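hi! just following up on the protien thing from before. the input was this:
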Amino acid sequence: MKDKIVAKATEMFLKFGFKSVTMDDIANDMGISKKTIYKYFINKEVLVIESTSTVHQHVIDTIASIVEKNYNPVEENFEIRKIFEGIFQSADASPLYQLKKHYPDIYKLVMDKEEHECFQYMRHNIQRGIEQGYYRENLDLENSMRFYWTLIMHINETTMLEKDAKKLELAALCYHTRAIGTEKGIQELEKQLSINT
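and the predicted 3d structure came back as:
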C-alpha cells in the first residue's frame, strides 16, 4: 500500500503541483481513507520527500539506460531531454519551481543528490564527445559542466510554466553544444534540431 500511495502522490504532485495537492485529494483519488495514508506518512512533507526520491531514481535509471544505448554524445543529450518531457508532460507548472517555492528544504536535498548524479553523467558525455570529435579537445570540462548546470537550474528555479521551461532548456542545450562543439558536433546539433523540433 505504501508504494501505491507514493506512486499516486507522485503522479498528482507532478500533474497538479506539490502545494495544491492535499492528503485528502490523494485519499479521495485512491478511494482510501486519509488515516490509511497517515499510517505510512506522518505528514505531507514526508510524502513529498518520498515522491521526489522516486522521481529522482526514475530519472537516474532512465539516463543510465539511454547511456547504455551508445548514442553519439550530442544525440544522447537530446534523448535524455525527451525523458524529462515525458516525465513532466502533464505538468502545467514547473515541478522544480514549485518545490523550491513551497518546500525549500526538500528542494535542497533533491538538488544536492541531483547535482552529484548529473555531474557524473555530464562528465562522461563530454569526455566521450572529446574522444569522438564532437566536442573540442581544449575545452575546460569542469567549467563547461558547471555553466550548463547553472543555466538549466536557473531556468527550472525561475520559470513558472513547464512549457516555457522546455523552450528555454532547448535553447540552453543548443547554447551548450555550440559553446563546446567542433564542426562535427555542430552538424550533429543541426541534425538533431531538424529531427526533434
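The first helix runs from residue 2 to 16.
The chain has ten helices and no strands.
cheers
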